[in-house]
Amino acid sequence: MKDYERLPLIPIKSAKGVYLEDFEGKKYIDAISSWWVNLFGHQHPYIKQMIKEQLDCLEHVIFAGFTHEPIIRLSERLVEITPSNLTKCFYADNGSSAIEVAIKMSFHYNKNRGLTKPYFVSLENSYHGETIGALSLGDLGIYKESYEELLIRSIKSEVPRDQSEEEAKRAADALKRLFEERSEEISAFVVEPLVQCAGGMHMYSPLFLKLASELCKEFDIHFIADEIAVGFGRTGSMFACEQADVKPNFMALSKGITGGYLPLSVVLLEDKMYDSFYCDYNLNKSFLHSHSYTGNALACAAANAVLDIFENEDILEKNRKKSAYINKKLQKFLELKNVKSVRQTGMIAAITLRGYPTQERIGLRVYEYGLKKGVLLRPLGNVIYFMPPYIITEEEIDKMMDTAYEAISLLPPVEPNLET
Amino acid sequence: MKDYERLPLIPIKSAKGVYLEDFEGKKYIDAISSWWVNLFGHQHPYIKQMIKEQLDCLEHVIFAGFTHEPIIRLSERLVEITPSNLTKCFYADNGSSAIEVAIKMSFHYNKNRGLTKPYFVSLENSYHGETIGALSLGDLGIYKESYEELLIRSIKSEVPRDQSEEEAKRAADALKRLFEERSEEISAFVVEPLVQCAGGMHMYSPLFLKLASELCKEFDIHFIADEIAVGFGRTGSMFACEQADVKPNFMALSKGITGGYLPLSVVLLEDKMYDSFYCDYNLNKSFLHSHSYTGNALACAAANAVLDIFENEDILEKNRKKSAYINKKLQKFLELKNVKSVRQTGMIAAITLRGYPTQERIGLRVYEYGLKKGVLLRPLGNVIYFMPPYIITEEEIDKMMDTAYEAISLLPPVEPNLET
């Protein structure tokens, strides 16, 4: 909040397509899809129409004992498009809550078969949300270091350091050693497939997912895919897991699920988990977890509209062309002395700067320059990234990336002793 | 889920006012406001219009670095109507997440002043949500007993056994003894003011809140009011805390905040907490907790519409008359042999049955009878309760309560040895 003394909050009056507009009529390209949620632009005519029609029918009803058409339709479609072993849907309102559902289910499933396995494994540099359970799995100090005494039991394993297959194998070996030692106390391995988004858009090879998934099977540990940020086409395939051809035991989805309109999240799971909770009420083996607005009909209507657009408009194919265009422009950044590396996975492209001490918060200068020029870039430390709505045009990509290029060119010269 | 083999889920096609309508055209009075969220009926013309207008302008924008008019307006209004010490708003998507925010802030505030206080105190029979942090505070075995190894540190204190002042004093004495012994390790006392809703609509005297609040001040422990279920007029005053004239350090709101339309929650806090987090970024004392859809503009538009209705339609006064009408009818239930007790706080009325073993799930029979007759009653164990939308008419109250009366009259005779 103190930052805003120097750089005041910008009140947004309206938004349309990739553009946010403030009260002075100034427009900003939403180059980060408003925290990775918006897929098809703001005020999308079809999504908004579908929400309005739902408003004229049923906005919300208790989701215990009762159900409604939009959620049945959505659940059937999600089961259809996710890996074939995932057959059931459990809903919540945000990504953190979905992660809480997944870890509770994993733990409870084991309890139901007589095993107490209170540990969860996640990767270094990971982020899985900020409620206590979800926070415990993450590894970003900025979010969790103040809460140490409140966290649940989790173990960090090494993340591949880059997108190479060698690194994938090295990290998988480390995971194997951990499982060999402690698998009996570990319920699940939780992972952000292909891209650790909050962790500076860190990317790694699908091979790691493949190897990790095999290890999970071998050691009887659940594989939880946290596709909250990477799902719904963001990495080039509908879900990132597809690129490694893995079948997670649980998959958590949120963000893009409603196209950036309304809070909604869901955990997909397998029949065997569902069956373990399916029993007479008095046996106390059922899985209970409810939020008041679970199964909100308006959010489900938005989610169905999003899936309609994917079905009708060949989005993934169009994105492939846009990704290729972004990739060509991305290579140009390597010419700059203060650029350490660039990387891309589908509709996520990232640039790591070098030569600036952390406390200088060099990314903030890129942010400021972007705002001045009408582009919302929101760096993560010294990482500048692009994660635009899929409807962005080549012209708008030019504006977005050229602005970032200028901003980086105009930064002070690098400090030669600092490699990071 | 297994219950639905015998009693299938009811798909709802549309809803209007207090009525839910299924695909056969059958209507049900939503006597529990769809899990305590709906205030002014389904498809309320004004709320729905306000959401539609917001859809035509701005559905959502990142809530970091940016803001928007509906949330500024909502925040100012919430600060205005809540106790005068509460001056800042922190948003999330559901009640559990709001509780997580409140306990993290309480703990972190203490950390910032050099104190590590990892324990939280809550009441026996309490419910505060189902993410790990929130779940740890609750005391209902059905939700938490399977997760013991995952929970954070909490201590239970005695809840007043009824609405008498003696019980309030007895429970406050117990709280005092606990604080005397362990206050140095306790960050906060978390409480559902006046009514423990999930805990069988258990009600207690405002005096307990008053005494507990004084003890919190005396022992330097935060008072967190969980008004998620009881806020927004449900107990007769706008917020339940008002009836005890206490000023909580944190207040969590959700459910009724959007009138039952969209997921939204908020924690109100004091300047002194805000100030303790307000510092240069590099000092790492800031409070970080974000959900992707935090500050969703559509949900804020619904919430502003709800506050407009409160302002323009003298809801609290109208509810007083309805509560009195409900109270008169409630006394009639005491004539029944299988009714142990009745109680009421504002627009919540509850009946406890006696003479049935728990495993018989006698409430389920009342539920079934209600559905047959077109009333959605959803008992909590052997407690039958009414928590209708505020727009319910006397005629609809008759139908709702008469149906419950019939259902209870038709239950099998009590087992004389069972007092509960």
Mass-distribution shape of chain A: globular
- Helix/strand-derived category of chain A reads alpha/beta
Beta strand % of chain A:
15-25%
Terminal Cα span of chain A? 27 Å
Keywords for this structure?
homodimer; 420 residues; alpha/beta; four-stranded mixed sheet; 14 helices; 38% helix; globular
Question: Any overview of this molecule?
Answer:
- Two copies of one chain form a homodimer.
- Chain A is of the alpha/beta class and 420 residues long.
- The first copy, chain A, has 14 helices and 17 strands.
- In chain A, 38% of the residues lie in helices and 18% in strands.
- The two termini of chain A are 27 Å apart.
- The mean pLDDT of chain A is 96.
- The interface between A and B is large, with 100 and 100 residues.
- Strand 4 (66-68) of chain A pairs parallel with strand 1 of chain B, so a sheet runs across the interface.
Short description:
The structure is a homodimer of 420-residue chains. Chain A has 420 residues and is α/β, with parallel strands linked by helices.
